[in-house]
Amino acid sequence: MSAIIRSKVKDLLKMAAGTEVLAKGWVRTKRGNKEIAFIALNDGSTIKNIQIVVDKNGETEGILSRISTGACIGVKGQLVSSVGSGQDVEIHAEEITVYGECDPMRYPLQKKDTSFEYLRTVAHMRPRTNTFGAVLRLRSQMAYAIHKYFHSKGFVYLNTPLITASDCEGAGQMFQVTTLDLNNVPKNKKGQPDFSKDFFGKQTSLTVSGQLEGELGATALGEIYTFGPTFRAENSNTPRHLAEFWMVEPEMAFYDIKDNMDLAEDFIKHLVKYALDNCRDDIQFLNDRYDDTLIERLEGVIGTEFVRLPYTEGVRILEEAVAGGHKFEYPVSWGIDLQSEHERYLVEEHFKRPVILTDYPKDIKAFYMKQNEDGKTVRAMDVLFPKIGEIIGGSEREANLSILESRVDELKMSRKNLEWYIDTRRFGSCPHSGFGLGFERLLLFITGMQNIRDVIPFPRTPKNAEY
Ligand code: 4AD
Ligand code: MG
């Protein structure tokens, strides 16, 4: 396959007929009649395939017999106008190289069963399907859009540590990191594990959030964002929870809760619009294949103002719904941590648009949130989305040193461990706010996929760490 440079399928489909081209990729299907074979070739650059037309004769017979679904081939030939429907151009093959054959009896994607459950059992192969190709391209595009958005606003991309000694959310859902010999753990005088002998000389875990370090960045650089993996050992087997997920966390000096909400709303709308403008083929495919209200839902979000509502009001609406006969699985009363069914009722049935719920009871939120004058609530904001529930969680932060210290004590957290964090309030404290967007929750919304395991290449969930 000399001289000619390989073109990607995405580009080939836009090229003018009459050119000599070289394509490389994986065979999606092979069909044909006595005279010709048609091969649909995909290289991952687009949801679309390029059609390869091969004349059947003594010369091509041998090579065609080695080509089946899943095989990897290279094809040199003329790009010609296609007579068939469905594509403008196709390649009339002159020379074919088989890079890798694919045994039809053993290829996992050859099976009739293409359910998402089945594909999760062969997650090492599923990127080769149309659906996962589309989802993974979208995932990559959205990551790019996130960086672009914040850079255009002058935010600094801050890398926060994955290994940490502090529990940001205080929910005790951390995976421990240790090099101690688990069969022979050194003990201290109290009979507890002696972490001074551990790798870091103290007890460490994988981070649940980069926020605390993000605040250090914001109170020096002004506006920062983090974007990286976070880990939660919560044993919840739901379609919306992963043990390893990616989070985007902007943190901004001099933003109050309202500025924070404005940014969150603008950010999400911008990302949805970016997807519609730049990833149309993949979204159209997902829309047509699985959920023909997807595009409508995406366009709807861009054009709507999000509702902004205090938690107390939200609970009142839910209580009225119960009084009116609506059945929830979990009871509703002021003080509860809202369940996904409650969030979705507010968004999907009551308001029929995204809702930002604010001013939650302080007892169900983390220690760092700014306390309101009522002594009961904090300046929290959760963005709730149709089909997803909570997509963003954030707040204005408590900037007052003594109030923060009292809250840390009240919650029996270790002040000593948090001295470095409390220093931001001790030295030049400033009002500031931030939030965390769950990247996979965003992708659930944008792709219309139903299960969070299907928007990350290699999901980590309870009892599953394959690949
Ligand atoms: O609401 P969360 O727990 O907030 C924080 O971690 C804050 N420190 C963020 C901040 O203010 N900088 O998590 C933020 C978001 C949630 O709204 C949700 O979208 C996502 O992270 N999330 C998860 N996504 C997938 N699997 C899980 N187990 C998740 N837990 C939270
Ligand atoms: Mg939350």
Topology (SSEs and partners):
Blueprint: H1 9-12, E1 20-32, E2 36-42, E3 50-55, H2 58-65, E4 72-81, E5 89-100, H3 116-121, H4 130-152, E6 156-157, E7 163-164, E8 176-177, E9 204-206, H5 211-221, E10 223-231, E11 244-253, H6 257-278, H7 280-289, H8 294-303, E12 307-310, H9 311-323, H10 340-351, E13 355-361, E14 377-385, E15 389-396, H11 401-410, H12 419-426, E16 432-438, H13 439-447
Parallel strand pairs: 3-5, 6-10, 12-13
Antiparallel strand pairs: 1-2, 1-4, 2-3, 4-5, 7-9, 8-9, 10-11, 11-16, 13-14, 14-15, 15-16
The structure holds 4-amino-1,4-dioxobutan-2-aminium adenosine-5'-monophosphate and magnesium ion.
Magnesium ion (MG) is lined by residues 382, 390, 393.
Walkthrough of the structure:
The chain is built from 13 helices and 16 strands. It has helices at residues 9-12, 58-65, 116-121, 130-152, 211-221, 257-278, 280-289, 294-303, 311-323, 340-351, 401-410, 419-426, 439-447; strands spanning 20-32, 36-42, 50-55, 72-81, 89-100, 156-157, 163-164, 176-177, 204-206, 223-231, 244-253, 307-310, 355-361, 377-385, 389-396, 432-438. The strands form three sheets. An eight-stranded mixed sheet has the order 6-10-11-16-15-14-13-12, with helices on both faces. A five-stranded mixed barrel has the order 1-2-3-5-4. Strands 7-9-8 form a three-stranded antiparallel sheet, with no helix packed on it. A hairpin with a 3-residue loop joins strand 14 and strand 15 (389-396). Bound molecules: 4-amino-1,4-dioxobutan-2-aminium adenosine-5'-monophosphate and magnesium ion (MG). 4-amino-1,4-dioxobutan-2-aminium adenosine-5'-monophosphate is lined by residues 168-169, 209, 211, 232, 234, 241-242, 245, 247, 249, 390-394, 434-436, 438, 440-441.
